[in-house]
Amino acid sequence: ALNTLSLHDALPICFPVTILQPRPVQPIAQPQPVQPIAQPTKPIYGNRYNSHSAERIVKEMLALHELAGMDHIWFADDIFGLKPGYLEEFVMALREHRINIPFKIQSRADLMTDLKHVNLLAKAGCTEVLLGVESGSQKILDAMDKGITLEQVRLAVKLLKTHQIKIGFFMQYGYVGRNHTRYSVEPFISQ
Q1: CA nearest 130: which of 147, 146, 108, 150?
Q2: In angstroms, rounded to a whole number, what is the distance separating the alpha carbons of residues 17 and 177?
Q3: Among 44, 85, 140, 161, which one is most buried in terms of CB atoms within 10 A?
């Protein structure tokens, strides 16, 4: 369907184009229990997800580059590379198609604690990783059932910096039932 778009008229305007992984929406027949704030999609999607092949994503990147001159892509998918072997396939497809388009991703901090994973992202051209950290307080992360530790965040930051990949954090202030202010986050960030 990309070949039906006329993006050249929009080139003077800066706008984001996002390649999303499709996730089926399942109707909810009866009220569901409230899920932790850190996992807002679980009531809809559960623990399952669908994703396009690395080959398809690379072909879409190439099409966006050729049709609209896209020179940077943001993968707004917080589980990019979660599937085992996906990053290897992604790097191979990029090389096969001779694509060198920088990109940024969103990710969980615990996925960035694997040196092999970070190496593959760097080889693929990843320039920035936005981590869903949510809080600089382990007590608040535990209350959110976030499933990560501050030690994992620190290790992820260290590995990403080693590969000259920029880092950003998504943070939540005012988590319900907790005294979460900027003062609970600043000590963590200053480390």
Answers
A1: 108
A2: 37
A3: 140
